[in-house]
Amino acid sequence: AQSVTQLGSHVSVSEGALVLLRCNYSSSVPPYLFWYVQYPNQGLQLLLKYTSAATLVKGINGFEAEFKKSETSFHLTKPSAHMSDAAEYFCAVSVAGGTSYGKLTFGQGTILTVHP
Amino acid sequence: GAVVSQHPSRVICKSGTSVKIECRSLDFQATTMFWYRQFPKQSLMLMATSNEGSKATYEQGVEKDKFLINHASLTLSTLTVTSAHPEDSSFYICSARQGSNSYGYTFGSGTRLTVV
To answer: What CA–CA distance (Å, rounded) separates B46 from B57?
Structure first.
């Protein structure tokens, strides 16, 4: 079975500073990896996803993530934080085969706070 | 892009009554839909996988007689919380998968259920 660990339940940055949200995964088969953002009382919006093509994935709103197989990581970054980036972020993994086929497994989430 | 509509967005019901939540894929056919539950300040937990025209597959620990799932068409899945109790109060989110791959998911906007 696959799993995801997000390091840091809360991250606080200043507006304009680098955003780094950490995600490590565990999977016995090649994974698909995702980052989602959730605003209060709303569903999830896809920021970006890795589907075994390019290891550096660019997403919406200036976010990007790099798949590093050797480190089993898929950290999310943004060069310059905006106030509107304040939200909760979830890393998720799915696999293309096996008993967990098609199921998304989520990390615990990281709340990003952006200070003026 | 793919859109999933979830209704209602918010519902308050009395203990002992049943509540139905709808999840519709608006511009694509979804043979598979997923239902998640999210407690405050926690991650999303998969409740069940719903396949069009067949019985839903429930995750371990989820009561299938309490959470009835129906996926009667390629664009509609419903979750009915039967004989609701205050402990069923939560945020419920559906997701629809485009095609048969493991990386094309679109989420609904969620339903906040409060049982009083």
So the answer is: 11
